[in-house]
Amino acid sequence: MTEFPLAFWLEKEGYDVTYISNVDTHADGKGLLRAKAFLSVGHDEYWTEQMFDNVTKARDAGVSLAFLSGNAISGVVELLPGAGGRPNRVMRRAGRSFQGEQELMGSSSYGVGFTDWTADKPEHWVFEGTNMKKGDRVAQLVGWEYHGPPLGKHADLVVLSEGPVYGNSGQKQNGTYATTIYTAPKGNLVFNAATCWWNVVLSSPPGFQHPPRKAFREDPRIQRITKNILDRMIAVKVAN
To answer: What is the Cα–Cα distance from 165 to 206, expressed in whole angstroms?
Structure first.
């Protein structure tokens, strides 16, 4: 559901995009090295441990990561052969959750939570060209699931936006979302939007069905932030 507006916007903006499935991420770790950046999109909840390992190795090799998603890398799954013996045809829950996903994503995976997204570090280069001031809001952008503390222990991790989240009926919850960015050892970047709905304000493609909670409008501020991040990722000269 949330992949369509991102794909539409990326191609409209002229980005050179390759589309892969989670099975590709699981089975072809070396294939990830073809790209400057790997994007996790929307509600990317279920990963195999091999996916986690492959994306971690891609980051360590200099590939930037953008988690334009919420509740990503949460439940562990296994990919099993089909009835005819073909590999990776059946997905099965492993009955456990990932631990330490914040060391890859920058923040941790959570379930349902809603709130406005705020500009907390408008002086950061991510906000260039948005004209956002500290405390400016993008209404109800955080949802329907999110990422938040505990955060990764990266030396230069920056929290770009954070705040309390609320339940379906507006009741305040204990959770806090956190949008983060950090620099990996080779100079590549890891951005975590911290919300499933980041992509739905990037474009309004024909036939797109909005999430059931509300109809979003395109937001030029989030468009510019996304462009700033992707352009910087593409321009990174990876250290040897």
So the answer is: 31
